[in-house]
Amino acid sequence: MIRFSLIYLRVGTPRHSLAFKPVLKRFAAVLVSLGLCAGSVFAAHGEVPPEAGAERASDFMFFLEDEPVYTSLQSSSPGFMLSVVNEMLKRMKKSASRQFLPWNRAQLLTMTTPNAVIFPLTRSKEREDKYLWICKILDVPVTFVTKARTGRTVDSFEEARNIRGIGVIIGTPQEVKLREENIPYITFNGKSLYGALSDNRVLALYTAIPEAAVGWRKGDHPGKLIFGPPLQTLPLWIAANKSSVDIDIRAWQKTLDGMQSDGSFARIFERYFETPYAQGPVK
């Protein structure tokens, strides 16, 4: 961010000061124009800039993706993970600014911005040394998902190799797994994945079971889904920049444990996934 300072220069007599005022006015107009341009750049890329002054007032910066299941821009339904973390912040008496970005960019900015936080992020071997891992929220099973009316299930990676048109979210361990298994795939962002299946742009998805159910329902897509057997388990974490000196991992974990104990975590889970929460605390 570029910051400007206006320095008042008193030159000679009041007459000179008055002559300088038009210059200041023109310079102020330029600054206003720059501010508008900056907002246009964010809008053009589908990004939501933080509120003015938010970086100074907030304890943390959240870099998130706008998608319907875990972290959404919709204030009435901000997503399961964002709802959980909002409650954690409230209990810890902390605040955060939020910026919604494409997922790969959100990951990059978290790795380069002190006190930046990202979620949900799967903890994997490739990511282990790139982040500060705060606490695990959930384990989710991953499988191939198809539309019920096709009558077809995909039960293994071997079967999937014969399918042309499998959708997966870009920049995820699911994408890495398909690549490792030599399975052709098409990448989407989290917001458009389920629409691609609904519109027959892909024949199947490789994604987490609970988020597929929620994403399909929230998108108001017709028909039902068929889930194959779980083929992968993803541990979903809250993670942060490795140089985040203001993040107390023990305080975050203690707060999450409190939500598990008093039932508030389960209530948030059941509100979004419309199924009883039976997993219990995750470690």
TrEMBL record:
SUPFAM superfamilies: Periplasmic binding protein-like II. Keywords: Signal. Residues 1-43 form the signal peptide. PANTHER family: PERIPLASMIC SUBSTRATE BINDING PROTEIN FAMILY 3 (PTHR38834), SOLUTE-BINDING PROTEIN FAMILY 3_N-TERMINAL DOMAIN-CONTAINING PROTEIN (PTHR38834:SF3). This is Amino acid ABC transporter periplasmic protein. It comes from Oleiphilus messinensis. The lineage of its organism: Bacteria, Pseudomonadati, Pseudomonadota, Gammaproteobacteria, Oceanospirillales.
